[in-house]
From TrEMBL:
UniProt keyword Transferase, yes or no: yes
GO biological process, one term: methylation
Reaction catalysed by this enzyme: L-lysyl-[protein] + 3 S-adenosyl-L-methionine = N(6),N(6),N(6)-trimethyl-L-lysyl-[protein] + 3 S-adenosyl-L-homocysteine + 3 H(+)
UniProt source species: Sula dactylatra
The protein's name: EFMT1 methyltransferase
Molecular function as annotated in GO: nucleic acid binding; protein-lysine N-methyltransferase activity
Lineage, highest ranks first: Eukaryota, Metazoa, Chordata, Craniata, Vertebrata
Any one cellular-component term (Gene Ontology): cytoplasm
Annotated compartments: Cytoplasm
Pfam families xref list: N6-adenineMlase (PF10237)
Alphabetically ordered keywords of this record: Cytoplasm, Methyltransferase, Transferase
Amino acid sequence: DDDDDIPQLSSHTLAALQEFYLEQQQREGMKTSQGFNQYSIGSIEEDWQLSQFWYSDETASCLANEAVVAAGKGGRIACVSAPSVYQKLKEQDGKDFSVCILEYDRRFSVYGEEFIFYDYNHPFNLPENLLPHSFDIVIADPPYLSEECLQKTAETIKYLTKGKILLCTGAIMEEQAAKHLGVKICKFIPKHSRNLANEFRCYVNYASGLD
């Protein structure tokens, strides 16, 4: 009799697992349905396999506000691998600016035409309507702390920006950031919703409000 119970226990475990995955899918579905603020940070959960770490609410707000000021009235802002800043900018939807998000994670396609699929391994694989030097400021947060990732992302940044760059990456990338983008470290210390092992910093190439 005891042996007969073993398969039944396994089927219960399987059912529980299926229920867990179903609940997870339902949560994701609810997040992107009407009535839910799909632009709030965390509405799309971090995927650590894609090296995703969302900013804290305070940091995302600070960077979004900086971008709006830097872009100016009617300005265009590009968020490259920086979805938490994009989400904060969309919370300010009434203000006079436009924004798009370049991101590898296709879950962000829920944001419609403002979403542009982006793979840093192919820096210039961009839509034809994304004209060179058409953004007043580009905010970028390369997913990996490697010179290769920074260098390739930098090519995209320089293609998109009219001049202003706001880069967020590790403190250990200071030398490479200066080399590839001509940016300098800011006093402002960005924070993440989950603490990271690596010290994180912001870099700019213009007189910003982050100092």
